[in-house]
């Protein structure tokens, strides 16, 4: 019985050949990706800038 559930490549339009190119860090090609988020510029805190506050005097 054949197993037709082959994994597709994350980077190219083909079946996975096990090259592990998808596991390489985008910023340091000598490093395996550890999902640090530095390539995505992820920050721990979200910041919202408030330009002005409008107060409804009728309330």
Fold and architecture overview:
The protein is elongated, with a radius of gyration of 23 Å. It is low in regular secondary structure. The model has no long low-confidence stretch (mean pLDDT 84). It has no helices and no strands.
Q: Which consecutive residue ranges, at least 5 long each, have pLDDT under 50?
A: none
> Helical residue percent?
under 10%
The gyration radius over C-alpha positions equals: 23 Å
Distance between the termini: 73 Å
Rounded mean pLDDT is 84
Quaternary structure = single chain
Question: What structural class is derived from the secondary structure elements?
Answer: little secondary structure
**How many DSSP E strands?**
0
Shape: elongated
Tally of contiguous helical segments: 0
Strand content: under 5%
Largest sheet: none
Question: What are the salient characteristics of this protein?
Answer:
little secondary structure, elongated
In brief:
The chain contains no helices and no strands. By secondary structure, the protein is mostly loops.
Which helices and strands, and how do they pair?
Layout: no helix or strand
